[in-house]
Write a structure and sequence with these properties.
By secondary structure, this protein is α/β, with parallel strands linked by helices. The protein has helices at about 10-20, 65-80, 105-115, 165-170, 185, 190-200, 215-225, 235-250, 280-285, 295-310, 325-335, 355-365, 365-385, 395-405, 445-450, and strands at about 1-5, 25-30, 55, 85-90, 125, 135, 140-145, 145, 180, 205-210, 230-235, 290, 310-315, 345-350, 390-395, 410-420, 420-425, 435, 500. It contains 15 helices and 19 strands.
């Protein structure tokens, strides 16, 4: 079993999908479980021995380094105690971090834990994830063909990335030797990579950052690292590892469990990690709502598509109402005022850069984040109580707030709505399908499609780099800082009233009517309330 420690919730769903699509039975936990149920009765969280890949989603990316280390070590010890023979540290494909961490300090701590056993080779890592248009060449990380420091990540509100060199970024977070495995070595094959790893280890190197331009490179790295106790990276390298490990795991399954994990949802003890047959189809065509808190350029573009489609939209304004309970109460009252059976609404705090800065100046970044996080959790609980059965969350911290508020401990990894964005089916927890989207993931119409009737269909292949396109691979376009509108006001996204539908949407919505759904709201509304969580993806 490979145990995965992910530094945020949407990163965990992304890496879970990489293992699942390789045919591995994949189980996702939100946080380190306090306990699991051995008999797996209906509604219980399956024990980790039911999975070939077991992922623990933390919310450690934006924590102080010492706290991130403590939580990661707790997850590592739990995974190893429950049978993990390998560990994978999942970090963001844009290497989101600062000079204080948290990637380097967590790697150091995990390396120390494993160093207590037999001698280990250097840790192989790469943020390359070509399916998400992240590639690394000569140590430089490219985002959709643009060096990281020249991409939209340069202006990230929490972790602005102003250096494109991954080895240099990592050296700023650890005192341990870091070297680069260049692309020509990777292209020479897994044996050449293994030889480079052994040579670096003999010279005292602890971390090797590898170039990778396509999925073939990542499979080479995965083959080379298949027996390593610790590897690290984005979902791309996880997919390469899964390609190497899946045949081994399949060979050890009982005969009745061979094939894709969906064909053997439970295994002999009823403990599979795939979506039980038919469950997704029963849940997904159901009342939906979108909660958007990410301020990433792509999420703002996706939100703009929803507004252009005339979706009912409510903006969460922590400056006008800084009390989380009151902010949530107002949002749920607005939801209750919508006509039954109408299109799925969106409730959002996402904001373009100028508006974001205005909120942070007014409240302070930490307070604004805490207010919005708690309010988002209360709103998610209230929506589920009112009959919403498809909940789409945009942003890692937004997703964390939703999962925590709903009391979801884990669940089955379902089919993808977009690359890196699978549907999740909580076990135990409310009977609701969750789509937890990283801020930068998905085509512009993803939120509209996912929240429309039949929105579970995966039509979002997204642009992908070709094998010979070099470090600038990929043909997708970056997103501007606005939300489908030219303005960047401090009072709201232009064209969207704080408590109503998008005002005067342009007539052309690029020909996609998926946002103009009907029958997506439940016909009755009970009440609201519940608890909160943590923030970092918003002001």
């Amino acid at each position: 079993m490979i145990g995965v420690i992910a530094d945020d919730v949407t990163g965990a769903t992304d890496v879970s999908l990489a293992f699942r699509q390789a045919g591995m039975r994949t189980l996702l936990y939100f946080g380190v479980p306090e306990g699991v149920t051995e008999g797996v009765p209906d509604g219980a969280v399956p024990p980790p021995d039911g999975g070939e890949a077991v992922v623990v989603a933390l919310k450690s990316r934006m924590l102080p380094a010492s706290e991130a280390v403590a939580r990661s070590l707790e997850a590592a010890r739990w995974l190893r105690r429950h049978g993990a023979t390998r560990l994978y540290l999942k970090f963001c494909s844009t290497f989101d971090s600062t000079s204080d961490g948290n990637i380097g300090p967590v790697l150091d701590a995990l390396d120390d834990v494993l160093a207590a056993g037999p001698p280990t080779n250097p840790v192989l890592l790469t943020p390359s994830s070509p399916g998400h248009l992240r590639t690394q060449y000569q140590g430089c990380l490219f985002v959709d063909g643009v060096p990281l420091a020249e991409s939209h990540m340069r202006h990230h509100p929490v972790t602005p990335m102003t250096d494109s060199s991954v080895p240099r970024l990592l050296r700023g977070q650890t005192e341990r030797p870091v070297e680069l495995i260049r692309w020509d070595t990777v292209r020479a094959g897994a044996a050449a990579v293994r030889a480079a790893v052994a040579d670096a280890g003999a010279r005292g190197v602890r971390y090797l950052v590898a170039d990778a331009l396509d999925d073939g490179d990542l499979r080479t790295l995965g083959d080379a690292a298949a027996d390593a106790q610790l590897t690290a990276g984005a979902a791309g390298l996880a997919g390469g590892l899964a390609h190497a490990l899946a045949p081994r795991d399949a060979a050890h399954r009982p005969a009745e469990e061979h094939g894709h994990p969906d064909a053997a949802a439970a295994g002999p003890s009823g403990r599979g990690a795939a979506v039980p047959s038919g469950r997704g189809a029963a849940v997904l065509p159901a009342p939906a709502a979108v909660l958007s808190g990410s301020c990433s350029a792509r999420t703002l573009e996706q939100l703009g598509v929803l507004l252009d489609h005339g979706r009912p939209a409510h903006r969460l304004d922590p400056v006008a109402e800084p009390d989380p309970a009151a902010l949530a109460s107002g949002a749920l009252a607005w939801y209750d005022s919508l006509p039954p059976g109408g299109p799925a609404p969106v409730l959002y705090s996402s904001a373009p850069p100028g508006q974001l800065r205005a909120v942070q100046r007014a409240l302070g970044a930490a307070r604004a984040a805490a207010v919005l996080e708690e309010a988002t959790g209360l709103i998610a609980s209230g929506l589920v109580e009112r009959g919403v059965r498809r909940l789409i969350a945009a942003g890692g911290e937004t997703s964390g707030a939703v999962v925590t508020a709903l009391g979801i401990a884990g669940g089955w990894v379902g089919p993808p709505a977009a690359p890196g964005v699978p549907w999740l089916h909580p076990v135990p927890g409310p009977r609701v399908a969750l789509l937890l989207k990283s801020g930068n993931f998905g085509a512009p119409d993803l939120l509209a499609r996912a929240s429309s009737p039949g929105g579970h269909a995966h039509r979002d292949s997204g642009p992908a780099p070709t094998a010979d396109s070099g470090p600038g691979s990929g043909s997708g376009s970056g997103s501007g800082p606005t939300v489908g509108r030219p303005s960047d006001s401090a009072t709201g996204l232009t064209g969207a009233s704080p408590s109503g539908t998008a005002a005067d949407p342009p007539g052309d919505s690029s020909g996609d009517s998926s946002g103009d759904s009907s029958g997506d709201r439940p016909t009755d509304s009970p009440g609201a309330s519940t608890r909160s969580s943590h923030e970092g993806d918003r002001p």
